[in-house]
Structures are given as structure tokens and as C-alpha cells.
Amino acid sequence: MRISILSTHIEISDVLPENSGDIEQLYRDAFPDEDLVPLVKKLLVSGDDVLSLTATKGGNLVGHAVFTTCGIAVENETSDHRVALLGPVAVLAALQKQGIGGRMIQEGLERLTVAGIAQVFVLGDPSYYSRFGFQEDGFIIPPYPLTEQWRPAWQSKSLQNDMQVQSGILTVPVAWKDASLWS
Ligand SMILES: CC(C)(COP(=O)(O)OP(=O)(O)OC[C@H]1O[C@@H](n2cnc3c(N)ncnc32)[C@H](O)[C@@H]1OP(=O)(O)O)[C@@H](O)C(=O)NCCC(=O)NCCS
């Protein structure tokens, strides 16, 4: 992927159909040891309620972040709370640590707040996601059991005052129904 070194302006926008080939290259670059391309492809074509944001620099794709709308089941009943799952997030290796990931995440959180999403969940490094206000979540259980080591990585952030569900299980669309994504 060619990157223009002359342009420093990063633009955050919705994913465009012409980005799809670049998205594959981006994920292979950002996650050299993990193949997240099948998940991302499924999320983008599934028709599920997905917020898919890109970061471009000089017209080149340099970052991508996905927020998937999910539900919460309380005692096997689906509650009417609309929540979201953040991930994956990827920034081209050569451009990491320049605030691009942070800008995509902030933009997504702002949009979901306006859309009335109650809470956002993420399974990721707490030292990164705590920057955005995510905190370990012991109330809502992820769809697949986490190993002891991964438990602190299960975090959430409330987007609306007074709309936090106190217990339940996160219900995810089919793209996320793969135990290997949660181990
Ligand atoms: C994680 C990722 C999306 C962050 O995007 P980014 O644009 O590099 O991050 P930002 O510039 O917004 O933030 C940079 C800060 O976060 C820290 N950071 C970046 N990735 C981190 C991680 N996985 N864990 C902890 N801290 C991390 C950096 O050290 C930096 O810290 P500093 O501000 O103290 O220097 C990006 O580094 C990436 O694509 N990594 C590989 C793929 C990945 O692990 N994705 C997340 C899991 S889905």
C-alpha cells in the first residue's frame, strides 16, 4: 500500500466500497500473527448494524474500526437495551502511535452516543482502552467464556446516564459467534 508522505491530514469517514481491498491489506499489516480478515469481511457484508469507520491519509486507507450493535439478554429474555461491541481496530503499522486509532474510536463513541446506544463493550488491552473511559466489566458476561488471563480485558463504557444494565449476557450477531475470537 502506498502512503503519501506529503499529506499529514487524517480523515475519518464511513467505510467506502472501494476500500474493501485495502482493508484486507491493512489487517494483514496491523495483525501479522492473526487473521481477522474473515471476521471483518463478514461484518462488512452481513447487513448487521455495524458502524465501520476508516482513517485515510492523502486518500490512502491507514486505519479501520468497527462497532457492531449487539443486545443484552437478561435471564434468557432479550432486553431492549441497544449496546455495541468495539473491534477490531487496526492502524497501519508504520503509522501507529500517532493518534489515528484514538480518533476513530472517539468518533465512533460520539456517533453511538448520539444514536442512543447505551453502552460499548471491548475485549482488548486495558492500558489502551482505559484512555477512552473503558473499565473492566463484571456485570455483563461476554458470549463465550474468557480465560482467567483475558478477564481484565473485558471492558465497557457507558454512553448514556441511567441506562446501564446491571446483569446479563451480551448477544452478538453471527459474525461474532466464533469461540476462537474470544480466546
Ligand atoms: C491498537 C491500535 C489500533 C492503536 O492505534 P494507534 O493509532 O496506534 O493508537 P493511538 O495513536 O491512538 O494511541 C497511541 C498510544 O496507545 C498505546 N497503544 C497502542 N496500542 C496499544 C496496545 N495494544 N496496548 C496498549 N497501548 C497501546 C501506544 O503505546 C501509545 O501510547 P502513548 O500515547 O503513551 O505513546 C494500533 O496500534 C494497532 O492497529 N495495533 C495492532 C492491532 C491491534 O492490536 N488492534 C487492537 C485490538 S482489536
Automatic annotation (TrEMBL):
Domain of life: Bacteria
Pfam families according to UniProt: Acetyltransf_9
InterPro entries for the chain: Acyl_CoA_acyltransferase, GNAT_dom
Keywords: Transferase
GO molecular function, one term: acyltransferase activity, transferring groups other than amino-acyl groups
Domain N-acetyltransferase per the UniProt entry, residue ranges: 10-152
Protein name per the record: GNAT family N-acetyltransferase
Native source species: Parasedimentitalea huanghaiensis
Lineage: Bacteria, Pseudomonadati, Pseudomonadota, Alphaproteobacteria, Rhodobacterales
